[in-house]
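Q: Convert this sequence to structure tokens.
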Amino acid sequence: MSCDADGRTLARVVDASEATLVVLDAEAFALSRLWCLYEIGTTPLHKLELLTDQAATAQVVAAARQVDAATAMCFSDDDRRMIT
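A:
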């Protein structure tokens, strides 16, 4: 499956879903992965739900302020080119 097909498939899934739930712990690991950022960024705001432990809120906010798609982890150069 090509990267473009993956993007279209993701768009269909997001469209058919009630919400995209992003669970973030104190490390906010999802914010360091390019595909996760892509999924978050392609979800309409009214469908985006963020869940974090109240004790981790400050760490999650700090991690969100440092998000950089250019340096986010991505295991495929084709995916990186498609996403960025």
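The radius of gyration is 13 Å.
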